[in-house]
Design goal:
0% of the residues lie in helices and 50% in strands. It has strands at 21-26, 28-29, 37-44, 49-56, 61-67, 70-77, 83-90, 97-98, 107-112, 115-121. It starts with 20 loop residues before the first strand and ends with a strand. A five-stranded mixed sheet has the order 1-3-4-7-8, with no helix packed on it. Strands 2-10-9-5-6 form a five-stranded antiparallel sheet, with no helix packed on it. By secondary structure, the chain is mainly β. It has no helices and ten strands.
């Protein structure tokens, strides 16, 4: 025994304070443009959860994000850099929306109008 204390206990021992879990998923590109890409990222630590979806190398415009079939917001892409993102957090941080929905195990889609241009399923664990 190395005395590491891996007792599987909760957050009451303080050992996990600085430990961040980051899961990043590249979404399938259905745009027809091989340069375009999208990623979904979930970052968790003992005090907060952050979820971000970023799209790159797409035409300027407004894109819809759905998680689990429910619209969660819009990603704005301006013509200066052809990329955009949307951020959620719990507790809610400045410049992000409240993360009040489940991400793990859900289908993530980015739509251009009614057309799905990026899709993927976030890992369940």
């Amino acid at each position: 025994d190395d005395g590491g204390g891996d007792d599987g206990g909760g957050d009451d021992d303080g050992d996990n304070e600085d430990r961040k879990e980051i899961v990043r998923v590249r979404l399938d590109n259905l745009t027809g443009n091989t340069q375009s890409q999208a990623t979904a990222k979930l970052e968790t630590d003992s005090e907060s959860v952050e979820f971000e979806v970023e799209i790159d190398r797409v035409s300027p415009g407004t894109y819809t994000l759905t998680v689990g079939g429910t619209v969660r917001g819009n990603i704005i892409v301006d013509q200066d850099d052809n990329d955009g993102d949307i951020e959620f957090s719990d507790p809610q941080e400045e410049d992000s929306q409240l993360l009040d929905f489940e991400v793990k195990g859900q289908v993530i889609e980015v739509l251009d109008g009614e057309t799905v241009i990026f899709t993927g399923t976030f890992p369940a664990n």
